[in-house]
Amino acid sequence: MSAAPIDRAQARALDAADPLARWRAAFDLPPGVIYLDGNSLGPPVRGTSARLRQVVDEEWGRGLIRSWNDAAWFTRAERLGDRLGRLLGAEPGETVICDSTSVNIFKVLAAALHLRPGRRAIVSDADNFPTDLYIAQGIAAFVPGVTLRLIGVDGTPASLLDEQVAAVLLTHVDYRTGAMLDMAATTRRTQTAGALMVWDLAHSAGAVPVDLAAAGADFAIGCTYKYLNSGPGGPAFVFAARRHHAAARQPLSGWMGHAAPFAFARAFEPDPGIRRFLCGTPPILSLAPLAASLDIWEQVGIDDVRRKSLALGDLFLALVEQRCGGALISVTPRAHALRGSQVSLRHPDAYAIMQALIARGVIGDFRTPDLLRFGFAPLYTSFEDVFDAACALAELIATGAWDRAEFRRRQPVT
Ligand SMILES: *Cc1c(COP(=O)(O)O)cnc(C)c1O
Fold first, then answer.
1. Distance in Å, CA 378 to ligand 1 centroid
2. Where residue 302 falls among pLDDT bands split at 50, 70, 90?
3. pLDDT of the residue at 4
4. Range 198-224 average pLDDT
5. Probe target for ligand 1 pocket from 104, 175, 365, with the most ligand atoms within 8 Å of CB
6. Residue 1 confidence (pLDDT) above 60
7. Is 200 in the pocket of ligand 1 (CB under 6 A)?
8. Which pTM does this prediction carry?
9. Atom 15 in ligand 1: which residue has the minimum CA distance?
10. 227 ligand 1 Cβ < 6 A
């Protein structure tokens, strides 16, 4: 990157040469907003409400209960799972859409403990997303003998990975810093120690290339409402490598995970495949937006998305460096191999600055205690958006216009 100041013309030139630029029109974004929070909640894909209406009015309204068969509701979560799984390097039959990421963490950790009966420890990272830690804590409190060891508090990966460890639960891209782990190397280290590797892909699915098969991952879970635009609370996914299907048991053994739910048998017998990770009736309405989103993902290449994501991040980092006079410190690795699809900047007044930025139409978010977080979703974010966002941020820093009571007032969701 040259040291000469970057100007709008350069950003526009990058947009003119961008092969993904045409996809912006495929998303419903309000005018006057630069949306850099798709890592928290993606916007709707254009056509989502029409698809929802079709499911409500036709499949449900006309077909009624017949749609479980006639509209193939019964297998929809698996078919969408297969479509999503292609983005993650999974084979057909290894991914299913269900429940929330939190609930799915419970299922796969319990399954991993069951697959490693002589081992009773779960390893995670002290800085992992809280729900991951809370669910692991819940399992440790609930299952006799299970303990949770945290990298950064209880030791290093090398010191914590011993013959007691059943599962290692890590998030591939850190929600705070955007730092990305080496999936293949980490998986190898975990498995060499005899433990199973569970990946949280909340900030990876639809954001960075993921190859679960090449990495040899055991389990993975993640959200679809972030980079995959399934809507607030949209159902999550579970990946389980096929080699574990026969033996993996998860304790939320609801009837939809049964080998034959409509046999109404008294005893639970798990489905032979990925359906054993289902619990109850799938949320058919909530699956509709994900289907609309996957229609797009099947027409774009994740490598193109990655290339643009890194270029957007590079541009933002360079602009912040040039225009914000050192007031904001990036906590995101500059090296491409170590970075996801977001940039986080540290400032003691990050909360008020982000609120002021949002008031100017640039939407990112705040992560306690002092981070401004900007997610880059290359399908609908332009280089000029990034230019404008960085200029708005620089102006706020230069003028101090963020320093007002209205911007310091804390809302429940940050
Ligand atoms: C967003 C996120 C979650 C969210 O879990 P939900 O059950 O959908 O609330 C979990 N893990 C990570 C790493 C996340 O970033």
1. 21
2. very high
3. 81
4. 98
5. 175
6. no
7. yes
8. 0.98
9. 202
10. no
Residue 142 has pLDDT above 90, yes or no: yes
Tens digits of residue pLDDT in 111-120: 999 999 999 9
Catalytic residues: 129, 200, 225-226, 373
Q: Is the pLDDT of residue 75 over 70?
A: yes
Best residue for ligand 1 mutational test, from 99, 102, 134, 228 (most atoms within 8 Å of Cβ) = 102
Distance CA 106, CA 90 (A): 21
Averaged confidence pLDDT in the chain: 97
Atom of ligand 1 nearest to the CA of 129: 13
* Ligand 1 center to 230 CA (angstroms): 14
The two tokens of residue 269 are 């017998």
Please give the Cα distance from 389 to 406 (Å, whole number). 21
- C-alpha span between 390 and 367 (Å, rounded): 19
Structure tokens at 348: 């003691």
The pLDDT of residue 399 is above 70: yes
